[in-house]
Amino acid sequence: MKNLNRISPRGFSLILFAIALSFGLFTSCKKAEATSKKDPETMKIYGEMEAELTAPPLVPRSVGNRAATKLVINMEVVEKEMEMTDGVSYVYWTFDGTVPGSFIRTRVGDEIEFHLKNHPDSKLPHNIDLHAVTGPGGGAESSFVAPGREAIFNFKTMNPGLYVYHCATAPVGMHIANGMYGLILVEPEGGLPPVDKEYYIMQGDFYTKGKNGERGLQPFDMQKAVDENADYVVFNGKVGALTGDNAITAEVGETVRLYVGNGGPNLVSSFHVIGEIFDKVFVEGGDMVNKNVQTTLVPAGGAAIVEFKVEVPGEFILVDHSIFRAFNKGALGVLKVEGRENTRVFSGQVEEKAYQPNAVASNEINDEVIEAHLDGALGEQMERGKSIYAQNCLACHQATGAGIPNAFPPLASSDYLNADVHRAIEVVKRGLNGEIEVNGNVYNSVMPKINISDEEVADVLTYIYNNWGNNKTLVTTEMVGKVK
Ligand SMILES: [Cu+2]
């Protein structure tokens, strides 16, 4: 207080206070005026209809400019075994048999009559807490329903936005971890502006007794869930729900809108589409629109609407940019865009060539043979091979051919190399990855395919084979040509 007074004399702070006060009064008047016209609470209801519900990644038709209505929602809780990934299954608890549950689309001012039915085969009671509900528990207590029963409750959609719904039966975390969540969209008066494609994507983290990929029916692991140590982080309930034949699609020139939710139970999603920029993000599913966004945060129990126009064809990868989740735990999907290339926006690769800023001049390479002054054809091939080696192989396999422990295998006295020349040709022409053993040491890395001519492959391999204690194989262009 003392400090403040010294900086701003009393008179000045009084003026400030007065300005703040009048500004506050002014804006609150304006707000009252705006909402009095269209208070959802007193909005008139026209007719009654049953809500169209859709399984992910689809969404129901937009509300357009229909009036507020009485909307009947019928949802069924189903506990069922489904695939988590190849060879791994899980007993999911679901709203309507899918993870996430059916997408609900409504508009502000609708009067919802919600019917929650629990399938007679269920083992447990369940309920639903919709974040779009204004009322205790978001409807949880009112919808609590035992197997073979149906619970009904009503609510009014007071606030437009994209909201998560989930089961809130104890232990809540376990019901959510088993897949009990989905999205409900409350459109504003007049509906959201139309776009070309809309999809429904929801992230969730899963905790299994066995670790990621361990086969068979995997039970839920409570301890891992408490520790937030997820085995799977996925979009739409399983690994591959949005890849391969399940990829979502669009045509060049279209605008895509994604309704993105995060069921959690634990992890926050850093939602990103590789190779696209979100033109618009309805931050946290609310009214605030951010523009030109690379990655948007989708909290557990939260959502976001993202929109972008696709200008070029190709595969655009949807990820949680906590990137090990994408590539090791499943949080990866594909948007496949078809249509005409647009080189003004993106050229694709124009050229690929050698870059060797520290190129060791080939005469610095440590070898024995050339020092012996080989003459004739072999000598010339060795000279060519040596400079090809310096340009294309040395950076990894080193000037001495000794490689680097645990990273690049040796070519000097390599049993792998000497055992099979055709295989060695394949390695250079096609690249190599996966586990191999060289001189008793295991390497599990990636060698890119080397883009050089068949003649150059012959020269460089002849050079290596006739050097560093290898078995002096002569490699010809014809031998290399046979390997495609
Ligand atoms: Cu439940």
TrEMBL record:
Pfam families xrefs: Cu-oxidase_3, Cytochrom_C
Keyword terms, alphabetized: Copper, Heme, Iron, Metal-binding, Oxidoreductase, Repeat
Keyword Protein transport: no
Signal peptide stretch: none
GO molecular function: nitrite reductase (NO-forming) activity
Cofactor list: Cu(+); Cu(2+)
EC number: 1.7.2.1
Domain Cytochrome c: 380-468
Reactions accelerated catalytically: nitric oxide + Fe(III)-[cytochrome c] + H2O = Fe(II)-[cytochrome c] + nitrite + 2 H(+)
Coiled-coil segments on the chain, per record: none
Domain of life: Bacteria
Family of this protein: Belongs to the multicopper oxidase family.
Quaternary structure, from the entry: Homotrimer.
Name of this chain's protein: Copper-containing nitrite reductase
Gene label: nirK
